[in-house]
From TrEMBL:
<keyword id="KW-0472">Membrane</keyword>
<dbReference type="InterPro" id="IPR038261">
    <property type="entry name" value="GPP34-like_sf"/>
</dbReference>
<keyword id="KW-0446">Lipid-binding</keyword>
<dbReference type="Pfam" id="PF05719">
    <property type="entry name" value="GPP34"/>
</dbReference>
<feature type="compositionally biased region" description="Low complexity">
    <location>
        <begin position="203"/>
        <end position="215"/>
    </location>
</feature>
<keyword id="KW-0333">Golgi apparatus</keyword>
<protein>
    <submittedName>
        <fullName>GPP34 family phosphoprotein</fullName>
    </submittedName>
</protein>
<feature type="region of interest" description="Disordered">
    <location>
        <begin position="182"/>
        <end position="215"/>
    </location>
</feature>
<dbReference type="InterPro" id="IPR008628">
    <property type="entry name" value="GPP34-like"/>
</dbReference>
Length: 215
């Protein structure tokens, strides 16, 4: 049996990795929103976060591996979308560094054309990604939704919300639309918030591009 990371954000980072292309298929806000939503979902599924008046509030005390619960506890009530966006870019680095430290991935500095620096991410054991993908695939096509492992259900919901092509290409999202909706309902409010945050961010970028071209 292949060992996989314990936390949902770490699992979603690995699921964003395309083994065939040997690279991450999501970066920037897209990946950041998915990972933040994964942290919120983990807390919600474990009862450490609850929803009150459409906003996350602290629930049962417990572990807070990424400090997200502490952020929420120290703040006035804010929307799920706010917490999905909060520190999302830095959160990608936090999860990446965790995976490097624990030996799941290797990160090397490279330069394109000998000039432009970038980071090359390599998964040390491809079987880990395959196992996580198998769990998500089984959740999408297998047993009744009520019997699906909660993290596998959440993986599908988050992958659909963040449009992770490594897990759910567009045709698959459309083909399994109803099943994804049911798995998302099981996973709490954060995946829906991630989808809305991503669409808002893309709309803002499109609007900015249109304004720029018209000036």
């Amino acid at each position: 049996m292949v060992e996989v990371p314990d936390t949902l954000p770490a699992r979603m980072y690995l699921l964003a990795y395309d083994l065939r292309k040997q690279k991450l298929t999501a970066r920037g806000p897209q990946l950041g929103y998915v990972l933040r939503a994964a942290a919120l979902t983990e807390l919600f599924l474990d009862g450490r976060l609850e929803e009150r008046r459409g906003r996350p509030v602290p629930g049962t005390p417990g572990e807070d591996p990424y400090g997200v619960l502490a952020q929420i506890s120290a703040s006035r009530p804010r929307s799920w979308q706010h917490w999905v966006r909060k520190d999302s870019r830095a959160f990608v680095r936090t999860v990446r560094d965790e995976l490097v430290r624990d030996g799941w991935i290797r990160v090397r500095g490279r330069r394109r054309l000998g000039l432009f620096p970038y980071e090359e991410v390599t998964v040390r054991d491809p079987r880990v990604v395959k196992d996580l993908w198998g769990g998500a695939s089984s959740a999408l096509r297998g047993r009744p939704v009520a019997h699906v492992n909660s993290y596998d259900a959440a993986a599908v919901a988050l992958a659909a919300a963040g449009e992770l092509k490594s897990v759910l290409p567009g045709p698959e999202r459309r083909r399994h639309k109803q099943r994804i909706k049911e798995l998302t309902a099981r996973s709490g409010p954060a995946p829906v918030a991630a989808r809305k945050a991503l669409r808002s961010q893309r709309a803002a970028m499109a609007s900015g591009a249109a304004s720029g071209s018209g000036s």
